[in-house]
């Protein structure tokens, strides 16, 4: 009995070693999809890469089909159209993608044929609503918390549904692992962040990228956010007050400058008026009385000063009344008398008197 048990354990260990050796010697290709989120009708490119790169590979492309016979996350894989013999190109284009779907690739080469392992499943997420299959999240809001319950409801043309999720680190699981599936609804109180969708054998719904928040983290972020908002508002108000003060200061400065200019102009005007009023004009008029030349006689010259009467400053014309002196000799007759009685005015231009 002991020998039989020992032999069974040895055979099991040998199988594990052989499998590990095979796995280590067989490369696993890496599948990428672009774009990963699509709208109905978009084209999607699948790319299968084998490391290290080398020539002679043929690539085969598969679509993941849900296996609903088990509560675990199982998929069957079927070749895509036209991929029976594989392709020499390491890329494959899907035209008119309309719903969420998973894909896989594999490569082969040589004679006898050498196969790679299957790649990991990669999903193309559809954000558009598919009438044949749809996912509804309840409560319907942008922010969800880990302490709240979450309901994921599947609707469409299938009688049997399951709710799937791809975690943030890439692991795939179903509602049976983290919730309770009742009919076409998955209820959970332990939801985590990830991409959720509904699927059946023939249909897949739109996908929903849900982020689950921790209430304590949300509260701490709110505590940080409040001072930040208060600081921003205070800064904006301070800038507005400074601008208003600067504007008022400039107006006050301009007003003071205007008053100063008016004062200077008024002072200059008063100074000009006072200067005009205080200006004096003097006129010196000399008359020379010439007699007929006689022998041994000299001309009789005597200066005559006039009384000057200044008219208004606006006239800028000064008149002087001049009284000629009376002569000593009376033989001058009538002409001399007429000269005494006659008043003479002279026009004098005002000027500045220099003492």
From TrEMBL:
GO terms for molecular function: transmembrane signaling receptor activity. It comes from the Eukaryota. Pfam families: Ig_3. Residues 1-25 form the signal peptide. The chain crosses the membrane at residues 224-246. Keywords: Disulfide bond, Membrane, Signal, Transmembrane, Transmembrane helix. This is Ig-like domain-containing protein.
């Amino acid at each position: 009995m002991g020998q039989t048990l020992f032999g069974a354990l040895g055979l099991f260990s040998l199988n594990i070693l052989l499998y590990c050796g095979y796995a280590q010697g067989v490369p696993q290709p890496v599948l990428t999809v672009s774009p990963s989120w699509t709208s109905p009708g978009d084209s999607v490119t699948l790319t299968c890469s084998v490391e290290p790169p080398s020539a002679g590979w043929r690539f085969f492309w598969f679509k993941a089909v849900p296996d609903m016979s088990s509560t675990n996350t199982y998929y069957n894989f079927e070749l895509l159209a036209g991929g029976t013999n594989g392709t020499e190109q390491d890329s494959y284009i899907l035209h008119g993608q309309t719903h969420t779907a998973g894909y896989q690739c594999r490569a082969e080469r040589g004679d006898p044929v050498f196969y790679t392992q299957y790649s990991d499943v990669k999903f193309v997420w559809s954000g558009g609503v598919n009438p044949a299959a749809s996912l509804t999240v309840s409560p319907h809001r942008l922010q969800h918390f880990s302490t709240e319950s979450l309901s994921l409801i599947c609707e469409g043309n299938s009688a049997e549904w399951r709710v799937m999720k791809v975690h943030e680190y890439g692991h795939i699981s179903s509602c049976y692992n983290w919730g309770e599936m009742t009919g076409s609804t998955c209820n959970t109180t332990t939801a985590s962040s990830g991409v959720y969708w509904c699927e059946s054998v023939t249909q897949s719904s739109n996908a929903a990228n849900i982020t689950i928040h921790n209430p304590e983290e949300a509260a701490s972020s709110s505590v940080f956010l409040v001072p930040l908002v208060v600081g921003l508002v205070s800064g904006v108000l301070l800038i507005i007050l400074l601008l208003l003060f600067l504007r008022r200061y400039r107006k006050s400065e301009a007003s003071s400058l205007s008053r100063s200019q008016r004062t200077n102009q008024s002072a200059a005007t008063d100074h000009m008026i006072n200067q005009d009023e205080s200006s004096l004009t003097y006129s010196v008029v000399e008359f020379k009385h010439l007699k007929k030349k006689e022998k041994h006689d000299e001309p009789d010259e005597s200066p005559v000063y006039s009384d000057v009467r200044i008219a208004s400053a606006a006239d800028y014309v000064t008149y002087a009344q001049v009284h000629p002196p009376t002569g000593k000799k009376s033989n001058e007759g009538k002409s001399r008398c007429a000269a005494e009685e006659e008043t003479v005015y002279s026009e004098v231009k005002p000027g500045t008197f220099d003492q």
